[in-house]
Amino acid sequence: MARAGRIVVVDYHKGNLSSVVRGISDAGGDAVASDSPDAIRSAAAVIVPGVGNFGDAMSYVRDSGQADAVRDALARGVPFLGICLGMQLLFERGNETGDGSWAEGLGVLPGSATRLESSRLKVPHVGWDQIHLTPLGRACPLFAGVPEGANVYFTHSFALADDVPDEVVAARTHYVRSFGSAVWRDNVYGVQFHPEKSSAAGLAILRNFVSLALGGTGGSR
User: Fold this and answer.
1) What structural domains does the chain harbor?
2) What is the pTM assigned to this prediction?
């Protein structure tokens, strides 16, 4: 079993995870990057970070056994945080696949992720932008102490689509379209932005997640 409070950052071999591990450490937590399904399954909390392509990422996490391990961890009720692509993978499908075809996601939450299309604004959406908390977001323990309209750091070309129900959307950001930039249901949290790169607001979010991993006040919705 994982050490008490140990947060496992899922390594699906698509990029450098050190900034997320370091961000958790800066927030007072204990994190390790691992590709082991057993480590994921027994973690006190799980983070899936945002690196790569939806289709490629899902192929790896499914074939490696990580997808089943994530679902097992979620069923145990441990806190889960998806970051950027890691949040998108929670949903039923995404079309970031190279040819625009649909790839099946984890299916933990309903809805899909699609490309931001604009002839006027630059895509990818890169840089600082605001998160606007919904009523759900204002009750969400992940955003305790985070002000409405906080600026956080984004880098993405795909975002949650309109078929994602409002009941799971904790924050919205307005760029190209109004998209869900944070989600919450029970022990499942997700953010489109990168808290590990988002200065004071991001550190507050990571501290809140560390508190959840240590058994702090969470919530159910």
Assistant:
1) 6-213 (3.40.50.880)
2) 0.94
